Amino acid sequence: MRKIMINQAAENSPYSDLNFLDLEHLAQVEFTSECTEHPVESALLLTEDPGAGWQAASAGEQTIRLVFDQPRTIEHIFLMFDEQQQSRTQEFVLLWLMDKEDAYREILRQQYHFSPPGTTREIEHYEVRLNQLKVLELRIIPDISGGEACAGLKQLRLA
Question: With a threshold of 0.85, does the pTM exceed it?
Answer without folding.
Answer: yes
